[in-house]
Amino acid sequence: MLSDIVKGVAAFFAIAVCTTTLCAEELRVTSDFPGGSAQVVQIDQTARRVSIRPAGDPQFGWPCWWYFRLDGIQPGETIRLEVVADQLKRTNGQALSANWALPSRAAMSIDQKQWTQTQPGVRDKDRAVWTAKIDATTAWFAWGPPFVPSDAEALAKRLDKSSPHAKAFTLCRTRAGRVVPALTVTEGGDDDGTRMAVWVQARQHAWESGASWVGRGFVEWLTGDDPRAVQLRKQTVVYFVPIMDIDNTATGNGGKNQRPYDHNRGWFADTQWNAVKAAMQKLQALDQQQRLVAFIDLHNPGANSPRPYFYVAAPSLVSEQQRGHQERFIAASRLEFVEPWPLEKDLPTTGPQYDPLWKRISANWIRQNMRDHVVGMTLETAWNTPHSHPTGYQMIGQRLGLALERYLRTDPRTDESKNQ
Ligand SMILES: [Zn+2]
């Protein structure tokens, strides 16, 4: 009897204690999965506060990307998540702002599929703290919605299977032996091989995950039922590469400005990047066949850009014809990139002042080496806004598709002769 009372009291006491966080399970951080990157700074089990810093190796690019799994959450509890970006101050000899690693809103998920944004965090110099109430025992947090090599492969396979117009192919294998998945989309056959060709690629900079979501939105729209998508795929053959820098995306490294040069400073004859080499070869072949008309390279820009924008060719570097095509493409884009996330008014350039290696930037390589009727564009989609989540990014991808369809209603090859 007495022992029953003791047991009852003990049980009551245990329940009472466990309603506080004192006997909550320990919070545990892991990042040993594809795309993961986090070095634990501190875990305060009582305050339920987790502090990490991005764990990328600076030789493989700016260490601004972070992505980790948190276990031991009591469903319904509020977690404080801190990211310390002190290592960004000096990376690869460059002074970098912590802004690159600290979005206003972090990306979070309880299943690694649906990604939402946290509420805006509280910033204090080189660190930021976000607060999230989580109704699960496990959650994932990241700089932005992740898109890893298996997502690229799954996207290519899924569309290959579900759409009669999409065909998956392997662009190449990387230096580390990983496959670079890609897709072509076209409708109705191209027996005489004269159709216009469009090339869209993302993630020359591995940490810019939003670019792959923009690309996914583009290609899903392109394989869908919108009559304008049907029109575009009947007129063109579209090539799409969801992730160019597969290796750094897989290992959770930043990629941007890696040593000795990154993918988007690697467009020259002896490039060490297999994806760039394979892309250059295909693009050159398409241009020799007088088929290539547009090349779009997808990126995420600096933290303070609120809207999407295109980098265009410096006025002094393009011919009259090239400038005309570029202006027509931008005008078509302005009609499609509407509220709530219109195109930025300004059109910056990537000329000699932008980067000493500007000639080796993909869009500039296109402008220098392809025929005058080819537009080469970099689309930068803002990542630090309330729209910068999968749905918002995919909307930008659809708009890119609409802009291409509008622009290509007139075949740019018909109003000029070849320039080389
Ligand atoms: Zn970039």
TrEMBL record:
Superkingdom of origin: Bacteria
Protein's UniProt keywords contain Protease: yes
GO biological process: proteolysis
Protein's UniProt keywords contain Electron transport: no
Domain annotation Peptidase M14: ranges: 145-420
Cofactor: Zn(2+)
A GO molecular-function descriptor: metallocarboxypeptidase activity
InterPro entries hit by this protein: Cytosolic_carboxypeptidase (IPR050821), Pepdidase_M14_N (IPR040626), Peptidase_M14 (IPR000834)
Keywords: Carboxypeptidase, Hydrolase, Protease
Transmembrane feature ranges: none
PANTHER family in the record: CYTOSOLIC CARBOXYPEPTIDASE, CYTOSOLIC CARBOXYPEPTIDASE 1
The family this protein is said to belong to: Belongs to the peptidase M14 family.
Name the record gives this protein: Zinc carboxypeptidase
